[in-house]
Design goal:
The complex is a heterodimer of chains A (607) and B (118). In chain A, a hairpin with a 2-residue loop joins strand 3 and strand 4. Chain A is 70% helix and 2% strand. In chain A, the strands form two sheets. Chain A has a two-stranded antiparallel ribbon with strand order 1-2. Chain A contains 21 helices and four strands. By secondary structure, chain B is mainly alpha-helical. The N and C termini of chain B lie far apart (30 Å). Classes of the chains: A mainly alpha (607), B mainly alpha (118).
Amino acid sequence: MDWLTTVIMTLLRYSEPMLPAGQRAWARALRVEADQVPAGWDRLAWLAGGARFTVREAALNRLGYPVAFAAAVAGTAWTAWSGPPGDSAVVINRVDVITISVILAGLPWIVGRARGPVADGRQARMIRTAGYAAILLLVLVKTAVERVADAVPNNLAGSALAWTGEIAFLAVMAGYAAAVLACTARRSPAIPAAVAIGTVAGVTVGLLVYALGPLGFPLRFTGWWPARLYDAAMALGALLALGAPVVAARVAIRRADVTMPARSRVRPGAIAGLCTGMTAALVVAALSTATIALLPYDAGLRNWAAGHIGQWTPAVGQVASVVGIRVGYVAGNSAFAAGYLIVLLLSPVAGCALGAWAGRPGGGAADSPAGTAPSSRYRVAGLHLRYGEPLLDAGARRRAGVLLACSAILVVALGLLFAHQATADRLDHGIDAPVITWLAGHPGLAGWLAFPGSQLPAAALSAAMVIGCLLTRRLNGALLAAIAVPAAIAVNDGLCKPLFHRTYLGVLSYPSGHTATMFALVATLAVLLDVPLRPGSGRMARIAILAAACALGAVVAAGVIGLRWHYFTDTVAGAAVGIGTVCAIALVLDLPTRRRRPSVTGDPAGG
Amino acid sequence: MGHRSSFSVQTLAVLAELCATPSRWRHGYGLAKVTGLKSGTLYPVLVRLADRGLVEACWEDEQPAGRPRRHLYRITPEGLAVATTALAQAPSADDQVRAGSRVRRGRRVAAQAAPWTG
């Protein structure tokens, strides 16, 4: 028996280096203790327990996870590699799989150098594994959709747009993987409770959003009661989706430490919100894309989709309009749904901003020390942030109120005038006809003119403004920039289009979503430039920037008229929706700062 | 920090034992003897408790004569608070595991007050 004890002892000693650094001391302690255990069966049993502990830890960490990862990558590659002959998506799919495999394999090494290996404990490993699995699943189902969407005759792989979308998708996936790794690393800036709570909230929101629109579009019900119930569920779902990052942030802050000083509560709040947004987007994108991928193969699903989504006809060719997972698609009379890439891009930003907002000093997350000004600084991911001065000074607030009222009156008045109309009236015809004629003489130009108002550029511009605000330490500005476009699209496509039901060539057209998007961006820029970086600086430059932005908005409007997507009045109402939505958001975001500092009546430097 | 009482009976047994002498450093074999747990069960429990900050661990400072330095464990103040709550919610769990392990291993459980240290 002694020889067996010696053999196990030796094995344990040499297997210790295979364990993660945090577990080595435990394995060594177990081995050292064996000397105190009476020789014979007892010692053997003690060492056997040590062997079980070591094998479980070492096998899982050194072999289990890499083998599982390799198997998952191999399975994804095997499924995605082939395709029908002539399908240009094959090239895209292969590039996707190879790139994502390299990224997922290499990132742990890079993140490990900066933030250390995976944190001890089961939770960090579970979140890391689930995050990787979700990313691989999304890539897998995306390749399946691409194979159908890009098939002949919808050959899109050669276009610059397709490749731009691919690069953006891969960059976003790399960002997700890096965030998952950083949040679960040993020297993570994130509090584990914030990550866990954010992840759980995100999964809940993701499943809820998926249940409400499995293909990314509102469902259609024929009966009066089912339709009303569904509308109510949608409203509740929207509230929950917006509230989840806030609730997750508050819970995380409460769980993190009740004695935490008020200004350091922003970070767990922001991280919980970020995790909520990331997880929800990943869950929705993966599940919905998987459902889209199943459409060509499942007749039952196609019939169900045909019955519940607009005037969509269940044919394989129609799936092509999905154009991968990137752009969303036009479902019958419905308007553009937000593409999943946009969701993947904006959801974490919005979640992070909402979470930080929930954790801001004086945000009611917990008792804050008296006298903490709303502009006091705190740190988020290494940046010193503050909630920000009010977005609008007293004068601008009045102007915003008037603009909001005018926009609402304009949209409703024009909407009532043109409700259920399917042709252009005299005014529209007078303006549309020359634009259409002129642009018809320049093939392709209209598409380029309308391009800035489409989802990808709008998301990029929003992201740029969010980053700009974070760099200039304006949390409320970042929040405005993050939610302006999604809110404008929601008001435009979710509320106005179905309400007024004006159509152009059979598609809902009033108000124009492209124009609403563009003018939401213009209005956001105007609000952000209202408080200059330095008092009185660059007034002319700001006016020039705004004039250029307005001109770009007009160009987009001309583009959608030229494409025969919208009447002129649609673009006017679209601009009103964009501007009005941003004014409303800015006024709401200023409420906390105004409530806390009623004496502030105006910014002497306000422009 | 609101730890939920989601401890297994084995974990509760370890916590009960560490709470009995909160200021003393204990070692693994001693804990195994008292709780009746096998090493393969005890150590993962200790690792998890240490991960959650409920137990602190360190190596013996001085090299004792005739044996290698031991790894020692002690309950943290936070661990004491959490364990007290958890044990109050499941007062019989500790007894159950002791009774079970007594039957299983046919070994008398050492009294909690046994004045041994690590």
